[in-house]
Amino acid sequence: MLELRDVEIRYGSVAAVHRVDLTVNAGEFVALIGSNGAGKTTILKAISGLLQPSRGEITFNGERINGRAAHTITRAGIAHVPEGRQVFPDLTVLENLEMGGFLFRNQRAVFQQQLDMVMSLFPRLAERRTQLAGTLSGGEQQMLAVGRALMSKPTLILLDEPSLGLAPRLVQEMFEFLARLHRETKMALLLVEQLAELALTLVERGYVIENGRISLEGTGKALQDDARIQQIYLGMA
Ligand SMILES: Nc1ncnc2c1ncn2[C@@H]1O[C@H](COP(=O)(O)OP(=O)(O)O)[C@@H](O)[C@H]1O
Ligand SMILES: [Mg+2]
To answer: Which domain holds residue 178?
Structure first.
């Protein structure tokens, strides 16, 4: 479904991501793990059209998407939940979700169908639909950010460190929620995380990125058992 081939991404003269190959199949749950500064966010931004690769190709359902405007990539079915959530704090929960559904602003039935789906996946957002997003807890804001992404009716969701800044109990809750989201929607998910151990228990396949290069790839189980992972991430999760 998604394929990155030989992708290099630069900030000015400095390459942050070097010749990366990565695929996500339809309905698959994949993790991209690596420490701070490894290049995870840079890769997600290139997939969703916020950065342009300086080399290589990104295809989605067989069509080249690098070079296309971000909103056309959203329309093609890729939703991005950015690092740090970035909900609109002064808008209500419902208004935030409406922003996520802007593609369907003139298709009331589709919009309503997505909204019903989000509200049934997140009963807690439904209860708080008129509450200002800025007054939600960190975990609830993260759920709202995911819900907002779901409003664009994606077939692939990019999740940039959803655990960041959450208390350990809420991190666990967030991961359980992602597992349920995958189970119930069968959407493809590309999860970026520093919490390698936790992420790898959840996903079907994973990639490890170090200094802008993919250093390991395999099933979640194989990576969990890999001695190098245990060494690199021991005590981190
Ligand atoms: N806007 C930017 N300008 C220049 N360098 C950047 C910019 N954003 C990120 N970088 C650099 O690119 C590298 C990868 O960053 P990033 O993709 O944010 O890593 P991660 O998400 O894995 O923590 C880091 O060395 C970072 O300093
Ligand atoms: Mg990042």
So the answer is: 2-83+152-233
